[in-house]
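Please check what follows.
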Amino acid sequence: MMLWYTPVLQITAKWYDCFEDTERIGANGMPGYFLVSYPTVKCPNQLWIKDEFGNPNPHLLKNVIIQMTTGCLCLFVGIGFPVFIVWKTKRLRNENKLNADSAFSSLYENYIPSMPYFEAVHFLRKALLIFSITVLGALFRGNVEAALIQALSSLLINTSFFSIIWKTKPQIYFPCSLIKNKNINNLAELTGAIATIVGNLLAVIGSFFSQIVVNDLGIIFAII
């Protein structure tokens, strides 16, 4: 279950991956944006935009069906699996079965008994990041602030994740040889979260500048 969670969401998110078609101009005089996986269907943010002849979107029904299907997958997989983790681990804890003999031990073996469900937080973070990068990108396609919106949403998600780790300290204790009385597992989680936050901050800064500046910032982040 843990292995297919992210790939399923990524495949689902591809239904929101769009491209610009300058040969198909809408009634508003702007280029049309269409799904990469279904080139005849417009992006979600252009559902109600008429074509160059002023006619309604002929693929409106197809787009609605696609959005309903992807919405159901996101609901049952993206939210359903983390909810299952919380339910299952809490049930095992109440039955005093949080041990290595359980078939679900990989879900909670790295976390303290009071928070055996923390893996669900990791999965929800992945789902939200995929949503912010793909779905928001499609909804604001053609908008000059699209990159900024994606960067800010990712920054908010990763900052919230860092705050949760900082406050709850969910990892099982393992002493750190360099810093006295510190849990190296929690430090590793916090360090990883900080790295993603720095990357998001660079992305926010880069969204205000040219592609050359963005490339330079990417090199700086890689060095860091």
Summary: Strands lie at 18-25, 31-35.
